[in-house]
Structure prediction request, 158 residues.
Amino acid sequence: MLLGKKRKLGRRIEEITVGEKLSMTEKIEDKDILLYLGLTDDANPLYIQHDYASQTPFEKPIVPSIMLTGMITSAISKYLPGPGSHILSQDIEFPKPVYHYGTVEFLFEVIEVVRDKHTIVISVIGMNEKNETVILGKVKVCPPHRLEEIHGRALDNF
Prediction:
């Protein structure tokens, strides 16, 4: 049990300002795609079958969009604002596909801080190795809350 142990939490809303940026690069390998497909039991041939994908406008297998969304949520959970944050909503577009072995350069930027509602809005842009936009979006996030001291009431959830 983690009760009373030190936790590494992300930044609270009062520590976040409009204009903050985070850049992150992800290379998509076969192992990542296979892990995702195995966990979700997704057998879409567009994601794994070269013979099928070659007959589509994509011409080769593509990375599932929801897997790319997972990379976005992971960056928010790990870095901006970090551990303890929670995504409230997201609006994400995928104007071009990402292919197996592709690299995506993500740029996250805080574009709005609403202290009275305890939310921030982060814009997300993803570019592939050809410098083409493959991801465009906005994510509304609740940053970590200030924690109270541990007391008897905290045990009510166990």
Notes: The beta strands are 21-27, 86-93, 103-114, 119-127, 133-142.
